[in-house]
Give the backbone structure.
Amino acid sequence: MSRIGLFYGSKRGDTADAAEKIKEAFDKVEQDLVDVYNVKKVDLSRMQEYDKLILGSSTWEEGSLQMHWMRAISQMDALDLSGKQVAVFGLGNQSEFPTTFQTAMGTLATRARAQGAELVGRWPIDGYEFDETPAVEDGWFVGLALDNTNQYELTEDRIKTWVKQLTREFGLKE
Ligand SMILES: Cc1cc2nc3c(=O)[nH]c(=O)nc-3n(C[C@H](O)[C@H](O)[C@H](O)COP(=O)(O)O)c2cc1C
């Protein structure tokens, strides 16, 4: 059985692509470790099947969750995520939206924590240029920040590095 459930929302496909790349990177640790779900098509109660979760959203409309997450997020309020480890990732655009860069990732982290989850997978802010964002806590992004508009060439390496980090933090073999 898979041990990680990855739930994402994506409008134009950037977050969907990142989700697939994350799955592929975990396949190198162990085949089929990750089940990938588009939140447009799945009931979020499926999160309860996993001890380890990865949640991903792009940010839209100056700080909102991606549309399908917006519709689905209230389903999370009914879930008990205590005892689960949750990592978040996001897609955003730091140069055009410097004050709301990656806000949706911050929202996912807050909502997961509110349901009792332990957050893992924080990510350094070095190498990005933005103003303030709720996706940063104590000088770190709450999860993996990706920007395919301005830094597409870094996305693949960032994912590989983050998956190595998560492999350790999730307590999986490397
Ligand atoms: C109208 C519009 C609003 C956006 N608002 C934000 C924003 O507030 N913060 C941010 O970081 N990125 C913002 N973005 C950038 C998107 O999050 C980015 O293009 C992302 O890669 C889209 O991913 P998706 O195809 O998975 O939905 C916005 C993009 C558009 C076109």
About this structure: The chain has one domain: 4-169. The chain is about 30% helix and 25% strand.
